[in-house]
Amino acid sequence: MDSKKYRYNHIGIPTTKKLKNEKYLVDFDVYTAGYQENEFNIEWMKYGPKCKIPDIVKELPHVAFEVDDIHEAIKGHKVIIEPNSPCGEGSIVAFVLVNDAPIEFIQFTDKELCEKNYKKLGRDKA
């Protein structure tokens, strides 16, 4: 793996439990917790009944990497979630399948704005 091209960002782990300090991504019906709250960036993911994210992402952990160009990063891979901005402006994310495992790519267009938007997401909506 080219550590300059792919930089570790977090691991996302599916759960069905209520999450402490969860944030809600209304457009995806997804609850998250733990991101940017520990040195290893372990993020817990809980999926609501209206979530249309592919089952493989809901069932298996995923590893996320920061990339400079999301469109270059997804080239040659099976894209399972097209590039989108789940937290509003500041980042673009996409998911691909690599060796039958979901991998997330994140391109920050404005990291400070992205972090600010993420912190504004609602808490404890379950």
Explain this structure.
The chain is an alpha+beta fold and 126 residues long. The chain has a single domain, classed as 2,3-Dihydroxybiphenyl 1,2-Dioxygenase, domain 1 (Roll). Helix content is 16%, strand content 40%. The chain is built from three helices and eight strands. An eight-stranded mixed beta sheet has the order 2-3-4-1-5-8-7-6. The mean pLDDT is 88.
Classify the fold: give the CATH topology: 2,3-Dihydroxybiphenyl 1,2-Dioxygenase, domain 1
Helix fraction?
10-25%
Structural class: alpha+beta
Tally of contiguous helical segments: 3
How much of the residues is beta strand, in percent? 35-45%
Reading off the top of the CATH hierarchy, the class is best stated as Alpha Beta
Largest sheet: 8 strands, mixed
Mean pLDDT: 88
Number of E-state strands:
8
> Mind telling me which CATH architecture this is?
Roll
| End-to-end gap | 38 Å
Sheet with most strands: strand arrangement: 2-3-4-1-5-8-7-6
Radius of gyration: 14 Å
Overall 3D shape: globular
Q: Summarize the helix and strand pattern as letters.
A: EEEEHEHEEEH
Domain count: the total is: 1
